[in-house]
Design goal:
- By secondary structure, this protein is of the alpha/beta class.
- The chain has 25 helices and 17 strands.
- Helix 13 links the parallel strand 2 and strand 3.
């Protein structure tokens, strides 16, 4: 049965709950029951053998976790005599609780994270527990009938349906499988030969795992290439319920679920000493990290580049780049083959933040270490909960020689297929053929209309401060005098009261007032209150004769990293403002050169295509046609 049809059948069980429970609560019961039935179907062929073995050794001092998984032919087991079919219409709750308690600890953890015991009690109070259990015993979810891949899609479909009914954001918990397939293809592509070796073992990690779809797809893809290869999954997920689904999925696939951690990745890395061959992630877009700001800021300050967030911190309302830095903290050195990373991000990490900002410093760290391999711009309307444009970043800490010092940008915004029926905000998808096309473009590493290749320094610039001289014309008005008197002594203000006319230099103005010397604050107040910009006035200088800068005329220029600041300034600035100069005191903290270094990746600039406006004749003709239609409609109404 197609996964969507199976999910719809399971969803229909929610009709039993209507009236007794809120729509927002349906998923709290349906999802754990679905997991329970799936685990039950997996264990069904060996259930009697496990029960017999358990009874034979239960009174002996033996570790059941070492014996029973082998009998169950799975990484988990159940020693209860009950199944959903045998719970009975009386004592249903007690029997179901005993059934769940019979699972091995790694499977029982799933139901603890769902808080299933509390919902069982509520179902019993509503006299619905037996009815719901009876419905679920009819679903055949054995892996021979519903593959792990399709079961993952069933879970994702259910989460989306329940999230929509609760007005929630289902897309936070899983990534569309077409996007996942593209990311995994790009990440694994350069290692396809190595992954084809017999008995090869690699590790893969997702720091925002959701239901584990990214990991499952990665495992499936490697299995397609080489059934003898092993890809060991590691993960961390914040939400307990989606973590429970991820754990259940990996249990059924036979993996050690101790590697699947629950908790906030940003505030507490629960796999601190692990390093991985591959990292895959689709962290939530624009996630606010204010709740963990203290711990993140402390790690940045205390650990520096020895910690996860040393390069810099992004603005607090978008933590996407925290996940990016976290993944890079999991990198292996080149001597161990390095690490390849695929992460799905919104557009903001490409350009948010000017020179010297946290975001710019993070981009600088990645580019100056030559880790960024490629960025692929995806079409809009690809995700269930947002229609914004998204990007897949491919990062490698051991780039191929021909990619050294270079970054490939691929504009795949026009490569997509329209869906027959929208799923939330998802209106487009990538077909297998289109995924292959994008992968071939990436692999070819050639310039084309949709593929551009840049040096890592092409994204860098120096922000220089351009100053112009302070030229002020001085005059006294009652309003200015009142303002000066409010900030200074009355006797000082009296000296300026009798001054009349305009003065083109500060010395002349002070002389007219009979003022020989002023303190620095008083002089500043004179210039601020009595002076106004005038290009014909005398330049005001400091004690050494150097011109003072006019803060109102101060400007910044971004000089490409490939250019000399002096040459750029002479070519781009001096012809327009000959009296300008560069403030050489503004230097970059890292390299000590003039100008603050910044990095940004402006996709639109690189792939911009000029589209000429329509001719005035065409627009005029269209307006006349519309006027004619309106006139015809009015005539019909009048008739």
């Amino acid at each position: 049965m197609p996964h969507q049809s199976m999910a719809n059948k399971i969803w229909a069980v929610a009709d039993t709950l209507r009236g007794d429970f809120k729509q927002s609560e349906f998923g709290r019961m349906i999802l754990p029951f679905t997991v329970l039935r799936r685990l039950e179907c997996v264990l069904e062929p060996t259930r009697d053998a496990v029960w017999a073995q358990y009874n034979a050794i239960k009174d002996e001092d033996l570790d059941l976790d070492l014996i029973l998984p082998g009998v169950a032919e799975a990484t988990f087991y159940n020693t209860s005599q009950f199944t959903l079919a045998s719970l009975g219409s009386t004592s249903t709750r007690q029997n179901l609780e005993e059934y769940i308690s019979g699972f091995s600890a790694n499977a029982r953890q799933v139901f603890d994270e769902f808080g299933f015991e509390g919902w069982i009690t509520k179902l019993e109070s509503a006299n619905l527990l037996y009815l719901v259990a009876k419905e679920f015993k009819e679903f055949d979810l054995h892996p021979d009938r519903v593959s792990n891949h399709h079961m993952g899609l069933v879970f994702e479909h259910l989460i989306r349906k329940f999230a929509e009914s609760a007005n929630d954001t289902a897309g936070e918990f899983f990534t569309p499988r077409d996007v996942v397939r593209l990311a995994t293809t790009l990440v694994f592509a350069t290692d396809q030969e190595a992954l084809g070796d017999k008995g090869v073992v690699r590790t893969v990690y997702d720091c925002a795992a959701g239901t584990g779809g990214f990991l499952s797809s990665a495992i499936e893809q490697v299995a397609e290439w080489n059934p003898n290869a092993s890809l060991i999954p590691y993960a961390q997920e914040l939400n307990p319920e989606t973590h429970a689904i991820c754990v259940a999925d990996k249990l059924i696939q036979g993996y050690d679920t101790r590697n699947i951690k629950q908790g906030n990745t940003i505030s507490e890395d629960k796999l601190p000493h692990e390093r991985f061959d591959y990292c895959l992630a689709n962290p939530p877009f624009g996630v606010d990290w204010k709740k963990v700001q203290t711990s993140v800021t402390n790690e940045h300050r205390v650990s520096g580049l020895n910690g996860r967030f040393g390069p810099g911190l992004p603005r607090v309302n978008d933590g996407s780049m925290l996940f990016l830095m976290h993944l890079l903290s999991k990198r292996k050195p080149k001597s161990q083959g390095g690490t390849r990373i695929g992460i799905v991000l919104s557009g903001s990490p490409l350009f948010n933040g000017g020179a010297g900002s946290g975001e710019s410093e993070i981009r600088r760290w990645i580019l100056e270490n030559d880790w960024l391999e490629a960025i692929i711009s995806l079409p809009t309307d690809m995700f269930y909960n947002t229609g914004i444009g998204t990007y897949i970043w491919i990062i490698s800490t051991n780039k191929e020689d021909h990619r050294a010092g270079l970054v490939q940008l691929i504009d795949a915004t026009n490569i997509n297929t329209s869906m027959r029926k929208s799923l939330g905000s998802k209106r487009k998808f990538l077909s297998d053929h289109q995924i292959d096309d994008i992968a071939r473009i990436h692999d070819a590493f050639e310039e084309s209309e949709i593929s551009k290749i840049f040096s890592t320094t092409d994204f860098g610039y120096r922000r220089i401060t351009v100053e112009r001289p302070l030229q002020l014309k001085f005059s006294v008005t009652p309003e200015k005098l009142e303002a000066y008197e409010a900030d200074n002594k009355a006797e000082q203000a009296e000296k300026f009261a009798g001054v009349d006319g305009d003065f083109m230099s500060l010395d002349a103005f002070l002389s007219a007032a009979g003022v020989k010397k002023l303190s620095k604050p008083a002089e500043k107040a004179v210039m601020t209150i009595f002076g106004e910009h005038c290009p014909d006035a005398e330049v005001i200088t400091d004690a050494k004769g150097n011109p003072l800068p006019d803060p109102n005329l101060r400007d910044n220029e971004n000089v490409p990293m490939s250019e000399s600041v002096e040459e750029y300034f002479e070519r781009e600035v001096i012809p327009h403002v000959p009296d300008a100069w560069v403030d050489t005191s503004k230097k970059d903290k890292k390299d000590g050169e003039v100008g603050i270094v910044g990095y940004e990746i402006n996709f639109n600039r690189y792939f911009y295509k000029y589209v000429p406006p329509r001719s005035l004749a065409d627009i005029d003709a269209e307006l006349k046609a519309v006027e004619g239609e309106i006139a015809d409609l009015l005539a019909e109404v009048a008739a």
